Known about the structure:
Elements: E1 4-8, H1 13-24, E2 28-33, H2 44-49, E3 52-56, H3 62-71, E4 75-78, H4 85-90, H5 92-112, E5 117-123, H6 124-128, H7 147-166, E6 169-175, E7 177-179, H8 191-200, E8 206-208, E9 214-215, E10 217-219, H9 220-233, E11 237-241, E12 247-248, H10 249-260, E13 267-269, E14 278-279, H11 284-290, H12 298-311
Helix pairs in contact: 1-9, 3-5, 5-7, 8-10, 8-12, 10-12
Amino acid sequence: MSGKALVTGGAGFIGSHLVDRLIDDDWEVLAADDLSKGHLDRLADARRNGPVHFHQLDIGSDEFREAVRRFEPDVVHHLAAQSGVRPSVEDPMFDARVNILGTINVLQAAAEAEAQRVVFASSGGAMFGEVPGAPVTEDAPAFPDSPYGISKKIVEDYFRYFRHVAGLDYVILALGNVYGPRQDPHGEAGVVAIFSRLMLDGRRPVVNGDGEQARDYVYVDDIVDAFARAGEIGGGVRLNIGTGIPTTVNELYDLIADSAGYDGAPEFGPAKEGDLARSVIDAAAAKAHLGWEPWTELPTGIAKTVQAFREE
Ligand SMILES: NC(=O)c1ccc[n+]([C@@H]2O[C@H](COP(=O)([O-])OP(=O)(O)OC[C@H]3O[C@@H](n4cnc5c(N)ncnc54)[C@H](O)[C@@H]3O)[C@@H](O)[C@H]2O)c1
């Protein structure tokens, strides 16, 4: 299937890679982004390769809904968000306006435009919170410990509601820790981007705490493959998108240092308050439902990411 796809947050880190993939797959794409964090130059390749339209719009606005009605997308990939945990703690009202009210507006716009389905970027880590032991499956109870995680959790009921009343199909993808080229190296999160930039500049990164906190790092190409598949298949489900493999910040540091040719030892700083000790998710359901599997081994993905930052 291909047709018309709307990508909210299309000028963001993951969204711009998704636009590239959809153009490769012969979709006509409308990217909508308010450019609060996005950059138009991330869409330069896609624009050379196929039909990409761009609208600078707030997903919470009437203008956004009007633009969606005019475009008449078949599939909506909803990635626009206030995407940070710390900003959500500092300003929960703003987080809720973008991530909850904005998402309701996206769903309403998709329903009005009679789109077939919406694929939503949720968060495995922020939604489940701290879960020791084996990788977390979708049926684990979700106890988010930040307004960001709460907003990702509570909009799920709206997805179910719109499916029920408007026949709007959906897939919610609960993502692990995404890394890859174009990630913001100056953000509050995105340790691969931050360390890569610093090491390539010959500067020593600071590791928060003892560096033994473990995460599930997924390469951005694998993530957009999950969106592409979900956009075709649907099904009204939430699926984890991760590798199931825990990697500590110390292990990551060594891999990035290897690729960047950096030989300095890390500096250890104070632990970040509320930092989870472990967040790893089980993606067996995504394999069964979407035929999705992560293809990119961490050393390969890190090498590609460092190379992209080197070329910037
Ligand atoms: N990066 C990760 O590791 C990760 C993990 C889990 C979930 N996610 C989710 O994936 C999605 C994309 O994340 P990302 O890492 O690419 O972040 P990002 O900040 O690069 O992308 C979000 C985009 O949304 C845009 N945006 C913000 N508010 C908007 C608004 N009101 N209207 C229109 N556009 C708006 C920003 O300008 C930005 O381009 C987000 O929903 C995020 O919560 C990301």
